[in-house]
Amino acid sequence: MMHTSIDVSAADFAQEEYIHTLRHGAIPSEKALRAILSIPYREKALVDQVRYRAMEVMEREVGNLVYYRGIVEFSNICTQNCRYCGIRRSNTHVSSRYLLDEEEIVESALWCAERGYGSVVLQSGERRDEAFIELVERIVKTIKERSRSTELPDGVGITLSVGEQTLETYRRFYNAGAHRYLLRIETSNPELFSAIHPPEQRFETRLQALHDLRKAGFQVGTGVMIGIPGQSIDMLARDILFFREIDVDMIGMGPYITHPDTPMAVQGMMEKEALLHLSLLMIAATRLALPDANIAATTALQALVPDGRERGLRFGANVTMPNITPLRVREAYRLYENKPCMNERKEACEACLAGRIASTGRSVGLNAWGDSPRFFKRKFPRE
Asked: What residues does [4Fe-4S] cluster bind to (predicted)?
């Protein structure tokens, strides 16, 4: 089943709204965001205007470099049951449930440091038991201790993405040495959030977790899925406003792609070309709304077209996440169908990605954490 379009009935496509935004460098209003996100695919000149402006803003605010976040998917064991996710608790078709050995996780992170990747992302399914929390603490501490070098005197930068936890747990992770945390809201619309999650997962809890991350000291990242069944252009515009309202430092968002072993699979997904178009406009619009945030060109873009990540970089993204998870377990971390790089060795992925980035006319920011300028402006405001 395919739902081929997203509801644009309330978008009030108004060219003058975003033209004013582009010409005068203003932070886009909600109406301007709706207008940008409603630009039809066939209006190539208008799309290019938005893309050029997003790239200008990106270069001015965060620079032209692309920063790597080597991602280690260290466990697919999950206690949650999100209706869209391939590793949801109730999916008995997952090939195997795994937890990588601690040393293997650490070695993967050290490989990143040796290759000049300034940062790693440690990602897993969600668990809140003490054994898991202690495991994450140990891994983070060990990586920080063993990754210090002349090039990275403070060690590799560490982003965690291990779901909703308590404020106390976030503080433990931060004190261990992690300094960025990605927790996607998936949608800022409470009703849509409820539709794609089971009743025990509440929008208010997710929102509080994002606030708790800020209290714990983290650079906070979040993001949404684009093209969810029942989503509208208005909702996506408000998602961008939500990013601004809670003042996030980094954004990782991507197209909604179905997984066949999930309850939402029967609802289908948008046609790929339309979904890619909308996803790229979301990146550009978010860059205009949050000029100094880090924005990722996510792997899911590459699931739509082979050069999806490069296209994301051409619309204002400045971060990408090469997969360095050991090959033998990658198949078991299939969050959605057609996930790229499932059988590609990390060395091959590195060479491939370097070429992809070069094709966009940009360079990789090696041996640097590549933290969000937005975070530092908040932490150290000018007098």
From this structure: 78, 82, 85
| Nearest C-alpha neighbor of 122 from the set 142, 95, 148 | 142
**Binding-site residue set:** 78, 82, 85, 186, 206
Residue type, 172: R
Which residues line the annotated binding site for S-adenosyl-L-methionine? 186, 206
- Measured CA to CA, the distance from residue 21 to residue 313 in angstroms comes to 21
| Residue 34 near residue 11 (C-beta atoms within 8 A) | yes
- Pull the structure tokens for residue 104: 């293997």
* Residue stretches of the annotated binding site for [4Fe-4S] cluster: 78, 82, 85
Q: Extract the tokens encoding 325.
A: 């998870």
The gap from C-alpha 168 to its chain's centroid, in whole angstroms, comes to 24
Within 78-146, strands assigned E span: 119-124
Domain ranges of the chain: 15-379
Q: Minimal CA–CA distance to 240: which of 18, 41, 9?
A: 18
The tens-digit pLDDT sequence of the chain (383 residues) is: 345 455 444 344 455 666 666 666 778 999 999 999 999 999 999 999 999 999 999 999 999 999 999 999 999 999 999 999 999 999 999 999 999 999 999 999 999 999 999 999 999 999 999 999 999 999 999 999 999 999 999 999 999 999 999 999 999 999 999 999 999 999 999 999 999 999 999 999 999 999 999 999 999 999 999 999 999 999 999 999 999 999 999 999 999 999 999 999 999 999 999 999 999 999 999 999 999 999 999 999 999 999 999 999 999 999 999 999 999 999 999 998 878 777 777 776 777 778 889 999 999 999 999 999 999 999 888 74
Is the Cβ–Cβ distance between 251 and 285 less than 8 Å? Answer: no
In whole angstroms, give the CA distance from residue 194 to residue 196: 6
Residue 48's identity, in one-letter code, is: D
Question: For residue 303, what are the contacts with CB-CB under 8 A and spacing of at least 6?
Answer: 255, 257, 336, 337, 338, 339, 340
Question: Which CATH code is given to the segment(s) 15-379?
Answer: 3.20.20.70
